[in-house]
Amino acid sequence: MIPFHKISFIGLGLIGGSVAKAINKKYPDIEIMALASHESTLKEAYDDGVIKNCSIPSLDEISSSDLIILAGPVRVNLDYLDQLSGKIKENTIITDVGSVKSDIHNKARSLGLAGSFIGGHPMAGTEKTGYGNSSPYLIENAYYILTTDPEMDKAKVSVFSDFIKDLGAIPLSLTPEKHDFAVAAISHLPHIISASLVNLVSDQDDKSGLLKTIAAGGFRDITRISSSSPIMWQNICLENKDEILHLIDLYQEELKNFKDAVKNEDGHGLIESFSRARDYRDSLPVRDSGALIPSFEFYVDQPDEVGAIASVSTLLASERISIRNIGIIHNREFEDGVLGIEFYDEKSMEKAEKLMCEKGYTIHKKQ
Question: How many whole angstroms separate alpha carbon 17 and alpha carbon 23?
């Protein structure tokens, strides 16, 4: 049974494009329309057979949809929510894919749309942007956080949650407040730390670019996310200001603890802090190596099919390639690929990459 007959996207970049492709792949009979800032994006999606319009539609055409997905920057989504007020059908569901939730829920309440709006945040993406980098597998097996207002019809939430599950994602319900704190801790603050570290090293580099020349391995690993869109992160920082400021204060306290331990030559305190960090980091799913330890891994675009992991493992085992770890990446924010594979050494990784490419797999390696 098709849950929605007409779905419209406002914004068709990496995330919007990927969700649209996933819908088109699962439900090819659903009419999908999109509004984007560049007509060339619409033409590309139209040529792909993903959307039905090749030119910019009117807001009236969008508002007649059963499901409207706001997939632009956070502040743009707020503007369009305002414009949609009073135009949508009674049973229309509006959702978004932004990484900040409290403000848009507050906006929905102020507009009388609390009973029509479901916040959505697919925990998937890369530092790449644009429809051209989108994939129907991007959200597959990724957590897809849903946030709702108490006024929201539970039956609508259930329908939408089942729809997300049908697309291959893993729905996870949170309050808007808990969501914003969680993503500030595991995503927003790390981006600020990464950017500030890169800027620090850049400012301290000499004219010959010595630091840039020798920067590799660990430094590239922990600062890779700094390649993300500055405009997107400007939006996020401004919209999730309170939670980010709170966590920056907590981080400064943590950093001061390290500073005091180094200053006072507190060897025991340093061991305790580094050990605690290592133990928690090693407990994270799929990848169990510390950020500063060289890791030999890549990511594979792999449809979620019965025996998918077993087939990859069997293929590698047939060539006597030992793997250290293999598993689905559930939280793929700023990661390419669905399946993460880690090897014991570089030689094994390179051999596996060559073999899998020959078999038609798409491989993504860390930048």
Answer: 10
Q: What is the C-alpha separation between 2 and 5, in angstroms, rounded?
A: 7
88 phi, psi to nearest 5 deg: -80, 160
DSSP-derived letter for residue 226 is G
Q: For residue 312, what are the contacts with CB-CB under 8 A and spacing of at least 6? A: 300, 302, 326, 339, 341, 356, 361
Measured between alpha carbons, how far is 343 from 299 in angstroms, rounded to an integer?
Answer: 12
- Model's pTM, two decimal places? 0.76
Tens digits of residue pLDDT in 140-152: 888 999 999 888 8
Distance CA 345, CA 6 (A): 49
**Dist CA 108 CA 152 (whole Å):** 11
User: Rounded distance, CA 223 to CA 230, Å?
Assistant: 14
CB 32 within 8 A of CB 9: yes
- Better pLDDT: 216 or 161: 161
Residue 56 amino acid letter: I
Q: Give the CA distances from residue 44 to residues 38, 55, 62, in Å, rounded to whole numbers and listed in that order.
A: 10, 11, 19
Cα distances (angstroms) measured from residue 147 to each of 90, 97, 210, 222, 302 = 20, 11, 47, 30, 28
The first and second tokens of residue 73, run together, are 């920057």
Distance CA 29, CA 44 (A): 19
The overall longest dimension of the chain from CA atoms, in Å, is: 67
Say how far apart CA 207 and CA 184 lie, in whole Å. 36
218 closest CA partner among 286, 281, 312: 281
> For residues 351 and 353, what is the distance between their CA atoms, to the nearest angstrom?
5
Kindly state the helix (H) or strand (E) to which residue 146 belongs, with its residue range.
strand 143-148
Judge contact between 174 and 337, C-beta under 8 A.
no
Cβ proximity of 192 and 248 under 8 Å: yes
